[in-house]
Amino acid sequence: MRVLGEALIDTVMLRASDFFKEERDPLFKRGLERGLERGLERGLERAQKIKKDLVRNLLLMSDMSHTQITKVAEMTEEEVERIAKRGYLPKQ
């Protein structure tokens, strides 16, 4: 093969990507789907944590009622009550 020269080797050797498209590969598709699902789950978990932090901060630093906080944080009143009962409020 070394005697053939670079130009001839390039024409003889075809790239694998000419035959195989990763977008059509079932394993690639499965991995892509799993990655998207995991990313979505992590994003939702992060959003929930941010909401809880928002509620905690509003409970600690504002005079807002639980009803007002539910509207701001887009949570149910039960969720706000649960956060308030878990000791996020300052001890007096």
Please mark out the parts with pLDDT under 50 across 5 or more consecutive residues, or reply none. none
| Major sheet summary line | none
Roughly how many Å is the radius of gyration? 28 Å
CA-based shape: rod-shaped
Average pLDDT: 82
Class based on secondary structure composition and strand pairing:
mainly alpha
Q: What is the count of DSSP helices, taking H or I runs of 4+ residues?
A: 4
Question: How much of the polypeptide forms β-strand, as a percent range?
Answer: under 5%
The ordered string of helix (H) and strand (E) elements is HHHH
Number of β-strand runs: 0
| Alpha-carbon distance between the two ends | 84 Å
Total number of distinct structural domains:
1
Question: Helical percent range?
Answer: 55-70%
Question: How would you sum up this structure, described in words?
Answer:
The protein has 4 helices and no strands. It is rod-shaped, with a radius of gyration of 28 Å. It has one domain (6-88). Helix 2 (26-61) packs antiparallel against helix 3 (66-73) and helix 2 packs across helix 4 (77-88). By secondary structure, it is mainly α. The termini are far apart. The longest helix is centred in the middle third of the chain and has 36 residues, at 26-61. The mean pLDDT is 82. Helix content is 68%, strand content 0%.
Short key terms for the protein model shown above:
92 residues; rod-shaped
